[in-house]
Amino acid sequence: MDIRKIDNALSVTGQIQPNDVEEIAARGFRAIIGNRPDGEEPSQPEWRAIAAAAEAQGLQARHIPVGGAQTVESQTPAFAKALAELPKPALAFCRTGNRSAQLHDRASATAQPSGRRRHRVVIAGGGSGGLAAAASLLKRRRNLDIAVIEPSEQHYYQPGWTMVGGGVFRAEKTAQREADVMPDGVTWIRSAVAGFDPDAQTVELDDGSRVSYDLLIVAMGNRLAWEEVEGLEDTLGRNGVTSNYRYDLAPYTWQLVQQLRSGRAIFTQPAMPIKCAGAPQKAMYLSCSEWEEQDTLGNIDVQFHNQGGAIFGVQEYVPALMDTVRRYGIGLNFGSNLIRVDGEAKKAWFATEDGEIERDFDMLHVCPPQKGNAVVAGSALANDAGYAEVDQQTLRHTRYPDVFALGDCGSTPNAKTMAAARKQAPVVAVNALNVLDGKEPGAAYDGYGSCPLTVENGKIVLAEFLYGGKVAPSFPAWLNDGTKPSRLAWHLKADMLPFIYWHGMLKGREWLAAPADLSAA
């Protein structure tokens, strides 16, 4: 039996057998609580057999099943009553022990005026990185007590929004209910994180309550700072102003592309770091591909305003991108940062080395400035830039050894892409379990990131790289040369990656994402 101690009064475990009760009594337990309904599995022993074995050993027994109409919430009062009445210590069981742990947590929260709960692992954020980390943890330790704090009811596959803006996907294909993707066995706390107190090992929720942890994983993403461009929020989604960085706006991008037959289309990119450094270009290239198909590209002045000084940060992929720029006749404006928009007047202003310039537009696709998550930035976990300060290999916090971070909220100097989070989650899982077991981290993240640059509808330049911009292709050159446009890479992006996300990454299936050994890094 894998028995996990919750506190001095209660421990939890997975399914027990009647012949286990003698050992349970020998370990000092004085009561057994069954939280599994009879008949969940054909081989499962009936509760009455376990209760009889408990009675024979002088243990008290109580059946508080959770399943079907009997939810954790509805059975919490009965569980709290049992904890108060039964002799201590008690052992509670279900199939894996997680329902028993959830009942304990809810009962404890009800009993404490402060609303404080405690979990072995708390994950702040139920987006891509948070759920992938939870799934990878459970893959390795099925009965681990994990709570995920996430207020959203919808979960999004954000890399798909580029394809929505290009008319390839419908927006609905990129969204599922959060409840449907939450890993089985975790406790979902449907609240927002309001603060961190790593010295007290607690997370504050937006209702004022606190959740305690033995180990914390922060996966809260970064912040899209729309407000930093004057006038932008007032005109988003109308007046020809759009962005594929929002679920509700990506369909408007496609609408504008279909409607535009002449005039000027401007695409912007702010200072790094941003989510997927290639996303602003992807929107531009897919738009140009459609205009080329409709034979209207020659009537449209396409301009790319990039605050940076290069088309892409990894030199090996630049030649193919420059060929694409020349093919579509795109004007490149480096060192040019969007600072103000007047949607009704169809004007945009940019800050450059030569001063402020004004440009008219008929379509404006904006990549917003991006910052560290506000809650993370306001906490002791943050570095000066507002990101959770972690070791770039182990993803462990540099000052708080019981804290890890991954995804867009972390300080690692990699490209902020979904592919990075997919590689980081198993590393966090291995290292977090090591720390819980009193060991040092043993896995390393190498900075892998991937940016499938959609240079046209049907072809992609598959950029893959590690820390320092080192090219790291997943496929041999004879199968796919990532430095050149490829139809194979398009099928990977359009057909395979969404499946890998929903059915692999979020399920703990680490396809092509096995963590590397830290000693070999």
Automatic annotation (TrEMBL):
Keywords: FAD, Flavoprotein, Oxidoreductase, Quinone, Transit peptide. Its cofactor is FAD. It holds the Pfam family Pyr_redox_2. GO terms for molecular function: FAD binding; hydrolase activity; quinone binding; sulfide:quinone oxidoreductase activity. Residues 2-105 form the Beta-lactamase hydrolase-like protein phosphatase-like domain. The keyword Magnesium does not apply. One of its GO terms (biological process) is sulfide oxidation, using sulfide:quinone oxidoreductase. Residues 120-238 form the FAD/NAD(P)-binding domain. This is Oxidoreductase (Flavoprotein).
